Amino acid sequence: MQNARYKAVIFDMDGTITKPVFDFQRIRKEIGLGAGDVAKEIEDMPEAERARAWRIVEEHERDAETNQELQEGAKPLLERCRADNIRVGLITRNVKRSVDSLCSKFGLSFDHVITREFEHIKPHPAPILHMLAPWRIAPVNTIMVGDYIHDIDCGKAAGTTTCFYLNPGCRDFSDHADFTVSSMQELETILWT
Ligand SMILES: [Mg+2]
C-alpha cells in the first residue's frame, strides 16, 4: 500500500462527514441573530436569552440527528485511514449526543471526538492541539477537513494543512484553504497521492 501523506486526519461533522442538513438561515431567524458567528452571538447574549437560544439550536440538532446522512464514500474512506494507520479525529460544534447517534447509526468510529462540551470551540486551535498531543503527531503531519470557514481557520491556527469540503449550493471558502474537494474520492486522492 502506498504510504499516506498525513499521519492524522481531523474531520468536521455536519456537512463534512454528513451531508449538510442545518438550515442556519432559519436558526438565525428563529433566534433573532444577525449574520455573525452563531455560537459567538449566543454567548454574548444576556443569560435568559442565551438559554432560550441554545434550546432552539438543540431542537434543530435533534431534527438533524433524525435526518443524518453520510457523504458518499465517507465510511470507506475512514476505514481506509484506519487500515493505513492514520489517526482519525472528529471536531464538531455539535453536542456529544449527536456524534454518538451518528456513530451508532452508521457504525463509524473515531480515535478521538471533541464536541461543544470542550472548553474551546473552532476556530480556536485548542481542540486540534489537545487531540494531537497524546497521539504525538505534529500539526504539520495533519490535515483538517471541513465545510466551513471555522474549520479552515482552526486548522490554520493550529498549523495543520487544511482542506475545504465544498457542498453543492453552499458558501465557497476555498480561497482560505490549502486544498478544496467536493467528494470523498477527491479527498482520497489528496491523502494517498
Ligand atoms: Mg460543518
Short description:
With 193 residues, this protein is α/β, with parallel strands linked by helices. The protein is built from nine helices and six strands, in the order E-H-H-H-H-H-E-H-E-H-E-H-E-E-H.
Number of strands: 6
Count of individual domains: 2
Nearest-integer average pLDDT: 93
Name given to the CATH architecture of the largest domain: 3-Layer(aba) Sandwich
CATH topology of the largest domain: Rossmann fold
Radius of gyration: 16 Å
C-alpha end-to-end distance? 11 Å
Query: What compounds sit in this structure?
Result: magnesium ion
H/E element order: EHHHHHEHEHEHEEH
Strand content: 5-15%
Helix/strand class: alpha/beta
CATH class call of the largest domain = Alpha Beta
Total helices: the number is 9
Unreliable residue runs = none
Q: What global shape is seen?
A: globular
Sheet of most strands: 6 strands, parallel
The portion of residues assigned to helices is: 40-55%
Largest sheet strand order: 3-2-1-4-5-6
CATH superfamily of the largest domain: HAD superfamily/HAD-like
Protein model, in words:
The protein is 47% helix and 13% strand. The chain has 193 residues and is an alpha/beta fold. A 6-stranded parallel sheet has the order 3-2-1-4-5-6, sandwiched between helices. The chain is globular and about 50 Å long. The mean pLDDT is 93. The chain binds magnesium ion. Residues 12, 14-16, 146-148 line the site of magnesium ion. Magnesium ion binds at residues 12, 14-16, 146-148.
